[in-house]
Design a protein that fits this description.
- The chain is mainly beta.
- It folds into 3 domains: about 70 residues, SH3 type barrels, CATH 2.30.30; about 90 residues, no CATH class; about 170 residues, Sandwich (Jelly Rolls).
- The protein is about 5% helix and about 50% strand.
- The longest helix has 8 residues.
- The chain is globular, with a radius of gyration of 23 Å.
- The N terminus and C terminus are likely disordered.
Length: about 450
């Protein structure tokens, strides 16, 4: 059966050749567990990848639906753009905002070029982000970089996994006072059950260690602070929330140790901002504790830690509610302004023009003084289909798609919001197939 499956996916190669391929160039991992490597070439058909490798006379043709992951050799993770745009489907990428109007947001990127998107498709824009630099990108490709309490940990194609109760730790060198932590985990048939601890003072992240930790279990996801053998709950999202039911969970934490604050995001949605009365943990150790029962795997990928020059601004409940009617502006000093954005044009001495409630005249704020712009939640419901793949770019962007084609050293794809776009191949870091949601049990749902 395996031989028949390979024959339908890769008609021009043999099982012997597949088993002897060394990992080099682009690495393609198939859903059936086979791994191929070589160079991706231009394709004459959409949704079919042509892979050239030394063991075959002609390129291997691989159906896109058979691919689980693709990893590229590119490693540049810097960006010179001044802003970062976040779309309502969770995609985000560095760019330079060129204009904002009542209906559109225009921007340019060194990856996608100049684009225009409907304003109600944008959730927020971060400004003045160019000073952020990567501190750690992982989990890497060498398990020896991690300290583990058992030999059951596996690191393959950028995914750290384990199916036994144990721990893995990593010391993050040069961790700044303020930073942004990101990571992803995939759901299996059961809910994830593990803790990711950060800011730890020791590699065990035990009761003696002062640290934060994010806990995944059957109840949902929660953020805690552990100090002096006491645990304090900071934020949580229940397992019946739609965000937690997504097949892949992307976590982001803005850690503002200077001001003793955090901002906790799940799949690009702000869950809560937290302000503590005690000093933040000073440690620089990252610890993953697998709590899953033996035989069920926990996976961690896309660990990303960047320096951060911003600060967490604690939005009040009233401010969150105001997003149904107004935009929110946060300046570089942390002040939050409820307003309606009128326009912005990228010109010399440019400024954002806005109208605050209960004021007669428009106001403006210099772009250099902006930190975040959050657009009001649109009353219009957008029925966006779930994409089949998620791309990680070398500049830190995340872009989703379902159908693509490699042409002329570029990847052309159909984006659910941006439409048809073209991305240079040298900008690609990885492509990950989006896990499918389990079918809904309508009988159980009715009960």
């Amino acid at each position: 059966m395996l031989k028949c499956l390979l024959k339908s996916i890769i008609p021009t190669t043999s099982l012997t050749a597949i088993s002897s391929i060394a990992l080099a160039g682009e690495v393609v991992q198939l859903r059936n567990g086979n791994t191929l490597s070589g160079n991706i070439l231009a394709s004459d058909t959409k949704s079919v990848v042509h892979l050239n490798q030394p063991f075959t006379k002609s390129p291997i043709k691989i159906k896109e639906e058979a691919i689980r992951n693709i990893f590229f050799e590119n490693s540049n993770t810097t960006s010179e753009h001044k802003e970062q745009i976040h779309l309502i489907n969770g995609d985000h990428f560095p760019c330079d905002i060129t204009s904002i109007t009542d209906n559109n947001v225009s921007f340019k990127s060194n990856v996608t070029g100049a684009l225009v998107v409907d304003r109600d498709m944008v959730s927020r824009i971060n400004f003045n982000t160019e000073v952020s630099k990567p501190i750690y990108i992982g989990p890497g490709d060498d398990l020896s970089a991690w300290s583990t309490t058992s030999e059951d940990w596996d690191l393959k194609d950028g995914v750290l996994s384990v199916s036994k109760r144990s721990e893995a730790s990593q010391t993050i060198k040069d961790l700044p006072e303020n930073f942004i932590l990101k990571f992803s985990t995939r759901k299996n048939q059961l809910a994830p059950h593990f803790s990711l601890c950060f800011g730890c003072s020791n590699p065990k992240a035990d009761r003696k260690s002062d640290h934060y930790y994010i806990d995944f279990n059957s109840h949902g996801v929660a953020l805690y602070r552990s100090k002096n053998a006491k645990t304090n709950s900071l934020a949580n999202i229940l397992s019946n929330d739609q965000l937690f039911n997504a097949p892949q969970i992307n976590v982001t934490v803005h850690v503002d140790r200077k001001h003793q604050k955090l901002a906790f995001f799940i799949n690009n949605k702000l869950i809560k901002t937290i302000s503590e009365a005690i000093p933040a943990p000073k440690g620089n150790i990252l610890v993953i504790k697998n709590l899953q029962r033996e035989g069920t795997s926990t996976t961690i990928s896309d660990i990303n830690i960047h320096s951060w020059n911003g600060k967490v601004n604690e939005l009040s409940e009233e401010a969150h509610k105001s997003l149904s009617k107004h935009d929110l502006i946060t300046d570089s000093s942390g002040n939050i302004i409820t307003a309606n954005i009128i326009n912005f044009a990228d010109k010399k001495n440019s400024a954002l023009i806005f109208k605050a409630p209960f004021t007669k005249e428009n106001s403006d704020i210099p772009i250099a003084s902006l930190q975040t712009l959050e657009f009001k939640h649109s009353a219009k419901v957008h029925d966006l289909e779930m994409s089949n793949f998620s791309i990680k770019l070398t500049n830190g962007a995340t872009i989703s798609y379902s159908i693509s084609q490699f042409l002329d050293s570029k990847m052309q794809l159909d984006h659910p919001i941006l439409g048809s776009i073209s991305i240079p191949k040298f900008s690609l870091s990885s492509i990950i197939a989006t896990p499918k949601k389990a079918p809904v049990d309508k009988v159980k749902e009715a009960q």
